[in-house]
Specification:
With about 425 residues, this protein is of the alpha+beta class. It has helices spanning about 20-35, 50-55, 60-65, 85-95, 95-100, 140-155, 175-185, 195-200, 215-220, 230-245, 295-300, 315-325, 345-355, 370-380, 390-395, 420-430, and strands spanning about 40, 45-50, 70, 75-80, 105-115, 125-135, 160-165, 250-255, 265-275, 285-295, 310-315, 335-340, 360-365, 385-390, 400-405, 415-420. The chain folds into two domains: about 20-175 and about 230-325, Bira Bifunctional Protein, Domain 2 (BirA Bifunctional Protein, domain 2, 2-Layer Sandwich), CATH 3.30.930; about 335-430, Rossmann fold, CATH 3.40.50. The chain is built from 16 helices and 16 strands. The chain binds histidyl-adenosine monophosphate (HAM).
Amino acid sequence: MSKTFAAVKGMNDLLPPQIEIWQRIEGIARKLFGRYGFSEVRTPIVEDTALFVRSVGEVTDIVGKEMYTFIDKGDRSISMRPEGTAPAARAYIENGVANTEPLTRWFYMGPMFRYERMKTGRYRQFYQLGAEAYGALDPAQDVEVISLCHEFFKQIGVPDVVLHLNSLGDGSTRPAYLELLKQHFLPFLEVMSPEAKLAYEKNTMRLLDSKEAALQEAIASAPAILDSIDEGSKQHFADVQRLLIKLGIPFELDRRLVRGLDYYTRTTFEFIYEPKSGENALGTAGTVCGGGRYDRLVHELGGPEKPAVGFAMGLDRLVLLVEKLKGIERAAPTLFIGTFDGPERDDAIALVMKLRNEGFDVDFDPRNGKLPKQKERASKVNAAWFAAYGVNEHTARTLKIDNMRLAPGAPKETVEVALDALPAWLNSKSKTPS
Ligand code: HAM
């Protein structure tokens, strides 16, 4: 026998029936994000490696350890995108979008790639639903994107998602804060791994994301950046909170929330799934959304001075939650038509196609086979009604249609419908019988 193949580790096939949850969530996103004024963009899967190094930051887990980077045939260093903010900013700058509109709101959905240690809800190819708003410095913009997330979770039916909020300041007080942080971590240098030492030297704030056991105590007692941010950012943060309260969006201040990417300024936030009771289906991968303001990135990447704020949600995690909480609502045919060998079979098939083309959910079994087998198939696909189409039905121009979803013990229910009247009957049944 020849060798069989497995998908690359950490990369999943998305198949029916779960794909129906993906499509439902994506459908809700398109509608809701559109209503909030966000338009879809699609950027390439791969980008110049330097784009991520410059934006996400060289001394971050994402760029330092997790990127799928390769040299292409033209000797360029290319990386599969680990996130969508940098590619969107690149596209925004490259296409001169700021010249044609002062305010831009984009969203995107698609696969991202990070070479991470896998577990439930954490994969090497995963899908993000993200949004980025360019051009507004006002706290109203921060709150608009947060409000979008809040409403989205409501619409897809995921409760117990808690908004964690922090501010990193505008950057002007960052050097003083980093000095403070260095002092704090100095006594722990000896127990640090070479990696953590590098972070200490080059990007001290990243130590706050470190998972190293020896550093956890030091991280817990580290000075919080919120205590050293500039006055303007304090006011901005107060305005964000005031507006969130006005909109009835609950939040928790989280002074440790520094996020694992370097481009953030001012507001940072995460939505974390924290069920009030029962086990957490996402385990320790409970962060379903992360985002914040990044007022310097567009300029740092060579574009105009444009403030921006955005977020990205982990779609894999949301699908997992929806499946656990609500199950899968499978689409099912309203009517399943059974066929027989013989010349009428062509007419039966033509009827199925005609009704489908008129917009009705009608199915049949292309294998033909014995009628009981076809009826089994109808049950399997959860058809609401079943009718055989043979020589008698063909001659009488009428179908005898059985209800396939009878309550246990209920008497058989059969209705007779003329072929001509089928569209009207199907219309009346498009809500499946109980
Ligand atoms: P992030 O926090 O790195 O932020 O990722 C956002 C979300 O993507 C996470 O909260 C999580 O739900 C999901 N995610 C991340 N890694 C994985 C993984 N390995 N497997 C499954 N899901 C994952 C960003 O990517 C920023 N670009 C967000 C942003 C947009 N900030 C401003 N604008």
